[in-house]
Specification:
By secondary structure, this protein is of the alpha/beta class. It has a domain of 217 residues: Divalent-metal-dependent TIM barrel enzymes (TIM Barrel), CATH 3.20.20. The chain has 8 helices and 12 strands. The longest helix has 28 residues.
Length: 317
């Protein structure tokens, strides 16, 4: 696999946040060292925030990416009233690899960066593209790529002919994403908001070293990774993703995925009901010195039950 781009490990910002320590029955040597803020995702109202606060959450990630300045300011005030913080804005999917969508989506992300600043957040989650060409199964990938261009050299061992369309679409999407993000960096810097890139089943950068190279290629403290713990279980264990991405990780989503019995494919489930080895994940986060926010995404748990399971994860259990 292509060597990691070491420049990324020099990227440091003020995005890491301090949180509350968690008491466990473990020895001091075994106790998790990183401080992680518990969060949820949504557009909450007063009653929702009451329930979240009572369940031990410290903030949330807003899904209102196009809020007016007045609405954003009101959301921030409401969160602060409950002793909570809006730590991020979820932009989600963009279509930078579609020429007919590029300008509009670029403008839309600029708006999300402004919204995040108005809400008192420090990141915008951005999935820059998606491709749908025929691709290998998760267990078939054996990626080789050009570290400078990010272009694929191969996706599987042997004959790559069946995946030529995928390779071409991937290279085009990478180029388009780079072009867009580079245009967004000055706006992000002006707003003091980090562009947190995520690859969420968008069929791009599907192995840890590959995604690391893409994020690190911007060589900017305003571009980092938003890592979803459950999104890529089918490609590689989350702890490997965490150790590979290292200091590039600025935020995390807490999600679980249950692999099928043969290890091929599976489905998303509530946290701690799937194949994620949470003690290994917690250890890996400690190893990279992660201090920051982690938001539960999906799973259908009540805030109280989600908070209880989250606390077990934070305790390294």
């Amino acid at each position: 696999m292509t060597a990691l781009n070491r420049r990324a490990f020099l990227a440091t910002t003020s995005a890491a946040m301090c949180g509350a320590a968690f008491n466990t029955n473990r020895t001091a040597a075994d106790e998790p060292k990183g401080r992680i803020h518990k969060a949820l995702i949504g557009i909450p109202n007063e009653a929702t925030l009451d329930a979240w606060k009572a369940s031990g959450f410290e903030g949330y990630e807003s899904q209102d990416r196009a809020a007016t300045p007045e609405v954003a300011a009101a959301a921030r005030k409401l969160a602060e009233k409950h002793g909570l913080r809006i730590h991020s804005v979820m932009y989600g999917w963009a279509n930078f690899n579609r020429p007919d969508k590029f300008k509009a989506d670029l403008k839309s992300v600029e708006t999300a960066l402004r919204v995040a600043a108005d809400m008192g957040a420090d990141t915008v989650l951005l999935v820059p593209c998606r491709i749908d060409a025929k691709m290998p199964e998760a267990w078939q990938f054996d990626i080789r790529f050009d570290e400078k261009t990010g272009h694929l050299k191969q996706v599987v061992q042997g004959d790559n002919g069946p995946y030529a369309e995928y390779v071409a679409a991937h290279d085009h999407a990478s180029d388009a994403a780079v072009k867009a993000v580079k245009q967004l960096i000055p706006i992000a810097e002006k707003q003091r908001i980090i562009i947190a890139l995520e690859n969420v089943w968008n069929n791009l950068w599907v192995l840890p070293e590959f995604f690391h190279n893409f994020v690190a290629s911007f060589d900017s403290p305003w571009v980092r990774a938003y890592f979803d713990i459950g999104n890529h279980v089918k490609y590689a264990p989350p702890e490997k993703w965490i150790r590979t991405l290292g200091k590039l990780i600025v935020k995390c989503h807490v999600k679980d995925f249950k692999l099928n019995a043969d290890g091929h494919g599976g489905k998303f489930v509530s946290i701690r009901d799937g194949s994620v080895d949470w003690p290994k994940v917690r250890k890996a986060l400690d190893e990279i010195g992660y201090d920051g926010w982690a938001s539960i995404e999906g799973g259908g748990l009540s805030p109280l039950e989600g908070g209880r399971r989250f606390d077990l994860i934070l305790a390294g259990k």
